[in-house]
């Protein structure tokens, strides 16, 4: 015979080839493990940076919110001064104590009047009367001590503290002249000229000890107060009519601590705050303490350069005419705490898997190795896709919650606008009624002089002695005619401070000195119409606001005396002030438009929203706030509203846009409310900027489209993965059967058992792939919702699974009828009933299905009388690939209950397990009406 052994591969060479193949597989596994480790480590770092960004945003938002709240106390105090004619020490303390309690980061609230050089002695006497140190106005010298201020030249002025709260801890500040500090004086002049609240730079308080001064951070807010009713449209008017400032000292440390109490912050975040009003040189306002004492704040560029790994968050915001920049840095410990040991664990598992793969390759064919590698790759891809989907779902949930919060806020504002509008209508109606009564009283002056007790009629001679004092005057002022006529002057019930102020104004306008009684009649003496509001002091000390009309009485062309007619308008004045306060304090932009389209009333929010000053808006045609392309139709809509006025939303079913001063457009919602005024019909419009809501809706639509596309890709991937993985598994199963057929009876018993186990593992892997495909599709709605009789549905499931003899499936009581998707509900019930039958430990048993309706939900229960499940496994059974018995005893992938939970949660329900001793009960909730 010819010798053909030379054509065969020598045994040594075949061994070397197998060794080379094993080495290549091991090296490839190690390389793949390193790549996976690097990818996971990078993902961990990105996740930690994203977590930091969200938490830093929450911190900055909380601090910005508290910063905004720091201005509310001064705004409330400004309204208090506008509504109160005279504010004393007790009334100031009574009003400010609740504000200090509400804003604990305010160290003090002060009233700082404007005091001229000539008025200095009078102020120093008043300071002593109000509990201060009855001495000179003080300043701080170069050594930090309080010393008397220098005498100022004529025309210059002081800004000393007259009232302060809390008094005990700030008594040393009484009489301190803020104007003696050039930095504070610049801020006050800026606040006076603009009429706005202005914040100072970071300051050190003279009444704080040196060690605390280094470690605390303060700013002062200055808000100008002008004389009530005086014009302040121009800078010159504001300088002339300034009465003083309400100020507050803000402890930045306390403000940030208050923000921390309102918002749970993660540890390991460092917060810095800089004043960036001067963009070229940001000034540090707040820096975290490092060690027992602060090393001092660093420059903004130095703080950013210290950010670990270049990770930091910066946001700019405006407050009190200042620009601020908040910078948040993470610590190295914070970033380390946001990462896990998964990359290292994955690397170790990868090395172990590479070693096992080498052993496996040494024992099986190259086809089996390819299948194993394909399984690993597809599993990694599926894991990455699942991670991406979870992140996308979380972003979608956050966007949806933000949109819901914004919608709730808008609904609340709409309700508030309607309420405010109704109150305004009532106030307007009352004011119209009182104005009509006053005009009627003026037309019937002769009758009033005879018998009216509603109008105070007072006549005097040239020197001011009262000659006529009717019953209306007696009721208004509290004195009898016998006590006043021929004995007293009207100066008896006039406020001397008010008379002094009016006298100073008259002296300036008339060019001569006007004082005493002449202040009341100076204009009437020269034939001018004189109608003003005055403060009358009642005999019991109370004050009344009186609309006083003064007329000169002439006989034969000779001046004989003066006649005054006064009407008590105290209540009307209070109502008018309340009306103006409500409009001004409204968080929504409000404007009133007359029938011609002219704007006659606006609040501060209108200025902020549209970018115009109040003086520019008043008198402007409302069409100027509408984009050019809508103006033609808007005029027709406006005229149509006055034909049929009713409270309603403007532009129902249409997108509305408004036009700012800078030419930019923005989406709005507008509520219209008709109002009758003394000048004719008008409409009160509430304008809400819905830019953020529109942006949130757009983001939500994009997220929905992305989610739908991702779901479609996941379906395609799951199908392809299942198909590609099943093919090599079937090949392995066929190879095992061919080995048995080829060897026949010569196969050892141990080898038969190994091949049988291989066949069982292949079948289990195919079942696992089917379950993974079902899990990926769980919660997805197929088909249309339909009316489902639960009793019929359970009967059909029972016939499908065919329980063994002795095992019964029954419905307890009458089950409800639902409007639901059949496929997901049938999937849940089938899995739960199958599990109860499969895992029963006896030949006979019962599975019972019951239901209980709860509002919009139905609670279903699948109970059995089997062996039960220990409480420590109640959460584990719902995990993926989890079984309570070895897979050699009960065939299954451990995916059934995971699919059940995912399907139920996709419908908004929840599932839980109840089991004590024998028997187990799976309960879950399902909506009565289908949810998409």
Tally of helical runs: 27
- The percent of residues in helical segments reads 40-55%
Q: For the report, how would you describe the main beta sheet?
A: 6 strands, antiparallel
Distance between the termini: 80 Å
What is the global morphology?
Answer: elongated
The protein's oligomeric status is single chain
Unreliable segments (pLDDT under 50, ≥5 consecutive)?
1-8, 208-214, 886-892
Strand tally, please? 31
Could you tell me the strand content as a percent range?
A: 15-25%
Look at the structure and give the mean pLDDT.
Answer: 79
Helix/strand/pairing class, anyone? alpha+beta
Radius of gyration using CA atoms only: 42 Å
Question: What can you tell me about this protein's structure?
Answer:
The longest helix is centred in the middle third of the chain and has 78 residues, at 366-443. By secondary structure, the chain is of the alpha+beta class. Residues 1-8, 208-214 and 886-892 have low confidence and may be disordered. It starts with 10 loop residues before the first helix and ends in a 5-residue tail after the last strand. Strands 19, 20, 21, 22, 23 and 24 form a 6-stranded antiparallel β-sheet that branches. Strands 6-1-9-8-7 form a 5-stranded antiparallel β-sheet, with helices on both faces. A 5-stranded antiparallel β-sheet has the order 15-14-18-17-16, with helices on both faces. The protein is elongated and about 150 Å long. It has 27 helices and 31 strands. A hairpin with a 5-residue loop joins strand 30 (911-914) and strand 31 (920-927).
